[in-house]
Structures are given as C-alpha cells and as structure tokens.
Amino acid sequence: MSEQVSPLPDVPDVHLSVFLHGVRMDFAACLTAALTFIEEHRARHYVDAVNVLPGDTTGLQRLPNERLFLSP
Q1: pLDDT, position 8
Q2: How far lies 55's CA from each of 14, 44, 65, in Å?
Q3: What pTM did the predictor assign?
Q4: Is the pLDDT of residue 10 over 50?
Q5: Residue at 61 is within a domain
Q6: pLDDT (tens digit, 9 = 90+) per residue, 15-56?
Q7: In a domain, 6, yes or no
Q8: In this predicted structure, what is the pLDDT of residue 42?
Q9: Handedness of CA 22, 24, 25, 28 (dihedral sign)
C-alpha cells in the first residue's frame, strides 16, 4: 500500500500543523488518526503545538505512522 493513501479512505482527511522544537510541519491525516494524535501530543507536549487547519490536503505528506493513531 502506498504511503500516500489514507488508512481509512471513507473518513475525511484534515490538515495537521505540528510545531515542535521551532519547526513547523504540515501533514494530511484521516480525522480518526488526527484526533488521537492531537490528544496524545497535547498530553506530552505544548497544548497549542498541534492545530487542524482548514483547507485542502492535496500535496501534503501523510502523518508518519498514521496507522498507529487509529485507536486510542
């Protein structure tokens, strides 16, 4: 399976913006994985370090290891 294919094609993708150690990274992720990622990231890092941005996700890399965030 391609790295650029959503693990849950029936779930909409969102644009995640992650700010970590002075670097902003933007990713596409299915909503299910994004919500779990945000919850876990906010518990361990700065609360405002991850945001969901409106807009198209075309051209964004998928969230690394996205499948690991499909369940809490």
Answers
A1: 87
A2: 8, 27, 22
A3: 0.84
A4: yes
A5: no
A6: 999 988 889 999 999 999 999 999 988 888 777 789 999 889
A7: no
A8: 83
A9: positive
Q: What's the domain range around 23?
A: 13-55
Going by their DSSP bridges, the two strands 50-53 and 23-30 should be labelled as: unpaired
Answer yes or no: is 36 within a domain: yes
The answer to whether residue 34 is domain-embedded is yes
Structural domain count, the chain: 1
* Residue 42 token pair: 């906010």
Alpha carbon of 3 to those of 24, 40, 42, 65, 67: distances in Å? 21, 22, 25, 9, 11
In sequence order, what DSSP letters do the residues of the chain get, joined into one string? --TTS-SSTTSPEEEEEEEETTEEEEEEEEHHHHHHHHHHHHHHS-TTSEEEEPS--TTPPBPTTGGGGS--
Q: Which pLDDT score is estimated for 4?
A: 82
Phi/psi at 59 (nearest 5 deg)?
A: 90, -10
